[in-house]
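Notes taken during the Thursday session

The instructor put the following on the board and asked us to keep it in front of us for the whole hour. The protein is Cation:proton antiporter. We were told not to look anything up and to reason only from what is written here. First, the residues (439 in total):
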Amino acid sequence: MSDTDLLSLLVALSVLLLSVHALGTLAERLRQPRMTGELGGGLILGPTVLGALAPQAHGALFPDTGPVATAFGAIEHLGMLMLMFLAGAEVRRLLPRENRRVTAWIVVLGLAVPFGVGLAALQVVDLGGLAGPAADPVALSLVVASAIAVTSIPVISRIMLDLGILGTSFGGVVLASAVAEDVVLYVVIAVALGLAHAHGDGLTGLPGLLGIDSVPAMSAYYVLTTVALFVCMLTVVPRLAAAALHRAGKRSGGRAHTPGAAGVTGVLLVVVCAAGASLLGVQPMFGAFLAGVLAARIEEASGAAIAGELRAFALAFFIPLYFGSIGLGLDLGRDLLLGFTVLFIALACAVKLASVYAGARLGGEAPGGALNLAFAMNARGGPGIALAWLAYEAGIVNAQLFTTLIVLAVVTSVMAGAWLRRVLARGRPLRETSRTAGP
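Then, after some discussion, the predicted structure tokens were revealed:
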């Protein structure tokens, strides 16, 4: 990269960072998810606004090709890995015993019904015209169904934190349900991305060495490998890490951790786990997610704030740039199919709200509390945006469906926050367990 290219990159990063942080702060003051403002910051600098008003300035700042575009692509992928790492670290939020029944019903119905409806809808409505270059109908079906079913852990956590309800029983049910749902969906998404990748220029890693070339064999490989990797990272690896930490503690004589060591450990976990997943043919984002799960387990065993040391910098640099870059890639004037997007959002919201409400009621929740849980679980936020971006990058969806999925994630996140604030402003309880509720 020449000095001129480096200067162009630094200017572009400075402009984008200023924009996403300014609009992110504004969004927070308006009591909206910060992610919404960060997306808006990129949207203003992208083809939707700046590109339409001053195309030469937009092209000079954010070229489509060349070293600057390549560097931005690398930053996007790093932002994705950091986002998934922090999402994985949230898995440490365990379910209190008294909430297990209602959470189990919410997970079963709130995940299975939307996912099933998404798959069924694609049998009735042909979305082949919205498929990407991969042209894989199985991967497309899995992505659309996951987009309907997914719940955002980071966004709903931040909303509840701002409202002072994160530590309540309501917050516990929402987070536990979201974690359980998203763990399953991340496995599904990893399989979908693996199938799409198989249609690319060639298989890499272990699938390439094994010479897997048939769709049934690829499907079986990605399912088994992804599930095995997840189980291994939850059971075997934490034990090995705990044993290594114990031996290291003995050698150090119980001295305090070296300053910055936790952050270094976190970075190594992200890079090594993402690379390991890629070698197995699984998407690196799933490896980063599992790195977050592992980091949380190590934190519990050692007390080192691994995720905490990475979180501050990731939320200040990588993740805002990631959301801003997604906004840069959106062209609402060209790619927004308004009628289709409205119908898709209506279907996704109706199915998710109804299924979570039914699950909460079967779990013993009163009608008002069940409705509040349904609106909270309807927020798709960061995971929904990440799913859309990954599917677009993998060629599973085209620009129009990508735009629809982004709008779905933003609209449902805003809806969730607005609903919960309205309930609290009226002085109503968010959760009121009925007499039929069990342990």
